[in-house]
Amino acid sequence: MLPGVYYARKKSGEPYYRASITYLGKHISLGSYSTEQEAHLAYKLAGRVLRGSQDWRIDDYPSSCLLSFHKWVVLINVRDNRIYIKNPIYIMKSYFLYYIDINTVLKFDAEDLFYYARHKILKRGGHLFTTEYGMQINLMSRYGIKNYAVAGKDFRFVNGDDTDYRYSNIEIINRYNGVTKITKNGLPRYQAKIHINGDYIIGRYSTEEEAAIAYNKAINLLRDKGLNKNYSPNYIEGMDEIAYASMYQRIRISKKLRNIIV
Fold this sequence. Notes:
The protein is built from 6 helices and 14 strands. By secondary structure, the protein is α+β, with helices and mostly antiparallel strands.
């Protein structure tokens, strides 16, 4: 076998060739090829990239290349930062870049490096997600943002860059189900709304927590009236049972909703 090449067979018995290279004591897989020569050329190219310092950059990825773009990023990162990460990550000084593909680059805080080094980001239908224990985890859920949240209404990217997932760049506007932040006379208010056979306003409240509990109270009212829709109640983080019960009793919901017939 030529250097860097390993012979293998598919389940069907068809032969193929795997290429890999060792760098800083790490065994880096480069991919699978149909011929021994292709696998060897991929190995040689990887060696040139690893020895090439700044002569080979991520943006210099050739239009026709024996290495996948994913592997290209991995090689340049391990060369420049001397840290081998299997996912297509490039480490900057205080954050890192995650390359979904050559045209899509996400930014994350350094504190998330351990997570994304172990969890590959996938893109499907415009949605970004990782997988854990066979389940799809929406990227936005790591920021407390619901799957149905609307950008610009429920959350926003502060600098306008929707590829910048650093915590300082994501502002959550509406954290709770059925709650929307509004402005009245220049002051923030929180409107609670619930959908039955149309949208019904539950009320407007001084705090987000009050509006979230009003939504819960509306759910309970509708269930008592026999409406068994699949509403998701709000969990108020940091509030104990006594404080919750006190606020629940104090909060008023609209007369129109109290008198509704379902």
